[in-house]
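User: Could you check the structure of this?
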Amino acid sequence: MLKGGDPAPAVTARNQHGETVSLDFDDPTVVFFYPKDFTGGCTIEATEFQAALPEFREVGIGVYGVSMDGVESHAEFADEEGIIFDLLADPDGDLADAFGLATDDGHTDRRTFVVADGEVVAVYDPELADPSGHAREVLRDTRNEFVRGG
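Assistant: Sure, the predicted structure tokens are below.
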């Protein structure tokens, strides 16, 4: 698994709208991997990142969710939960592999990566039954990292 200081991989995937999204991670970005759309912990995590999205954007930090679900599942999940940031479909596990995550039984582990200037800045392991508060933790830490005096 990638760790702080490792080069961030350039990745390309389709979002919930079927659009191709390519990330080179020059700008501060949060990429959170979650096991599956429509499951309890994953829904909490995604909706909490959505709730904090205006604050992430205010300080210039992009947010992307990734699971091995397909575009159609992501579209339904985003629509049902009001998620407007990109959910990247990784049905073959290519993005998970690029970040060094296992892909067991069509799922990845729950991990969050903060990347900027082409490298991994931080890795979070929110392997909790209830990931409540994780998005706020990442927001607090990224604000401290990328916004001086903020």
